[in-house]
């Protein structure tokens, strides 16, 4: 089988699964539309028909649903994001602590310092990829639709600033003199991150809620012709 034939077979299989998943989730879409309409106070003819409504009456309804959703969102956000940050703590494993105790006190201190440095690194990575905002979007989507998704990714992290000419590393400061000049610097490196995925963009096998064991999951994003043209020549 040639590579082109193999790609064609894979594409055909993906489109087949996508069509099945899309058909199977129609009842879910109807529920999501009702939920969203209730959250945004829209009348979708589910509680008031045109025959029972006068011309002067509004299509909107009282915001009881939005109040309840907002309250649930606030409670969940407070529990999952303490002070706007992910609550976690790096600690030394019992086995590593035993190994360190068999050596000397300095070895134990080195391990604890490594945990502290790793915790700071992870916290910085969460800040760089705006993981708190992703989590807040996930919480709101879960409150409105009953399910939510996010994706882990690797992206290019860019940092830039100014430094005095002659500094050993980007961002390092040194004593300023009249002769020194500030120069701009920029660095780029791959970094782990996370992104929010709209519930409407996910098509999956509904036989199982375990995404690792279900038949498949497809993330579909609709894009504009302009966006497609910008991808020309890229991998």
Give an overview of the whole structure:
The protein has 235 residues and is α+β, with helices and mostly antiparallel strands. It is extended, with a radius of gyration of 26 Å. The mean pLDDT is 85. The chain has seven helices and four strands; from the N terminus they run ααααααββββα. A two-stranded antiparallel sheet has the order 1-2. It has helices at residues 3-24, 26-39, 64-80, 94-103, 105-128, 131-145, 225-230; strands spanning 149-164, 182-197, 202-204, 217-219.
Q: What is the overall shape?
A: extended
The number of helical runs is: 7
Number of strands: 4
Strand order of the largest sheet: 1-2
Radius of gyration: 26 Å
In terms of DSSP E residues, the strand content is: 15-25%
Quaternary state of this entry equals single chain
The span between the termini is 24 Å
Major sheet, described briefly?
A: 2 strands, antiparallel
Structural class: alpha+beta
Low-confidence runs: none
Helix content: 40-55%
Give a quick summary of the entry.
The chain is of the alpha+beta class.
Fold blueprint:
Elements: H1 3-24, H2 26-39, H3 64-80, H4 94-103, H5 105-128, H6 131-145, E1 149-164, E2 182-197, E3 202-204, E4 217-219, H7 225-230
Antiparallel strand pairs: 1-2, 3-4
What are the main properties of this structure?
alpha+beta; two-stranded antiparallel ribbon; 7 helices
